[in-house]
Every structure is written in C-alpha cells, then in structure tokens.
Amino acid sequence: MPTPTYETCCIKNVNITHDVYEIEFEKPEGFTFEAGQFVLFQVPLPENPVDTQPRAYSIASAPHEAKLLFVIKVMAGGRASRWVAESLKEGDTVHMQGPFGRFFLQDSPEDILMVCTGTGIAPFRSHLLTMMETASIRNTHLFFGNYKEEDIFWKEYLEKMDAQNDWFTFVPVLSNGSQNWHGQCGFVQDAIAATIDGISSTHLYICGNPAMAEAVKKTAMEEWGMKKEKVHVEGFI
After folding, report:
1. Across the strands, what pairs with 144?
2. What is the dihedral of CA 162, 163, 164, 167, to 10 degrees?
C-alpha cells in the first residue's frame, strides 16, 4: 500500500540562526508517526509553484504534540532553501507524504548516546520528548556539534532539560569556538571519548553531516569497540 499523502498548513516560519529556519505545520487529520521518522514535502520553485520536487525532513516534534515541527538548514541556490527563505509563509498549503524511516530507539535497557550536527538534532528532540511522555527513561547523552556559538539553536531549551532531568546530559561541541566559549571544542567523537566511560555498552544514534556521521561510526567500531548492531545512523536530516 502506498504511503499516504496529506495537505497541511504552515503556521510558523522563523529564522532562528543565520542559516536555519524553524517551521511548524498543522498536523493533518489521520496523520500518525513514531519518533525518529521523516516526511517528504513537495517543494515548489518560488517562480513556478507548479514545479515541485520531494525533499525529506525529519520530524522534530513528538507524536503526542499537536503540531508538526521541523528545522531546515538553507544553502545558497537549493530548491528547499529558496522555498523556505523566499516564499513559504504562514497560511500556505503544503503537500507532504509520510511517515517514512525506521530511526527508532531500540527496545533495550542500555544507555543512549545521541550524536548530531546542525539540523540533525531534529529526530532527537522527538525521541527525548517521547521518552518523557511514555516514561521510557534511560541514561542519555546528547552531543550537539556546530561550528560557532551563534549556530547553536535550542540551547536554552536543552540546557533546561538537562538541569531538570538527572538522566539527561546535553553537551554542545564547537569546531570553531571563540575565546569566550568554555565548552567542548573539536570533533564530536573526541568530546564523547573525553566525557563518557563505558561507551561500548551504549546504543549510539547518529544524525547530521555525512562526514561527521561516518567519522563517528568508524571511531565507535574501531576504537571504542562498539558492535555494528549498536550503531544506528539516519541519512535524512
């Protein structure tokens, strides 16, 4: 059976960093999904709205939330980037198909290690809120890699979550932090090794920059001794 398609309405489109937009849509009637899944939006050209192509984005909202939340990174000349930055506005009707994907948390009592860069954090927000909603809490570290301080979004939200929950630890990592940055710097895999003991006994989930994902996966299996079945990578962000 084909994956169903839906019409939805944009209710928010806000630029939250110099190259990331936070977008919210009404949840269509009958649309259900699991944390970690993604949808395909039919993305039009701003100058020719009937010319559409599908683009995949992970759902950042949790299944129990009333709206659908996404974060989209814009890149010069990209179809979806132009759509988000130039034409998508509140009240617009958008066609989407889904849900797709199986980037689910494994049914295991072992600790969770989440590693992401940029908008790759989207499915992890969904996972974290779902864990709290369903009381399926496990010791969880979230390593969030970015370039500079101004690239970090949802920082206060995640720091508050860290402060209020002893099972959750948020670790922002910058590859080019300023002299005023006192957090972790460098590659996320190095920050992980410096922060966590017993890495090999965790389940590792990676989403974001493909080069980062490959580097972390390689380090996990070759240096940390993680088994392949404990390393989970999402290709769509």
Report:
1. 116, 172
2. 50
Q: Looking at residues 22-45, what average pLDDT do you find? A: 97
Exposed, middle or buried, 143 (CB in 10 Å: 0-12/13-18/19+)?
Answer: buried
| pLDDT value at residue 89 | 96
What's the fold here for domain 5-100?
Answer: Elongation Factor Tu (Ef-tu); domain 3 (2.40.30)
pLDDT over 90 for what percent of the chain? 85
Tell me: the pLDDT tens digits for 141-197? 999 999 999 999 999 999 999 999 999 999 999 998 888 898 999 989 999 988 888
Q: Are 53 and 41 in contact (CB under 8 A)?
A: no
Calculate the alpha carbon distances from 157 to 40, 68, 83, 143, 164 in Å.
27, 18, 27, 14, 11
H or E stretch at 79: helix 79-82
Structure tokens at 237: 């962000």
CATH topology of domain 112-234: Rossmann fold (3.40.50)
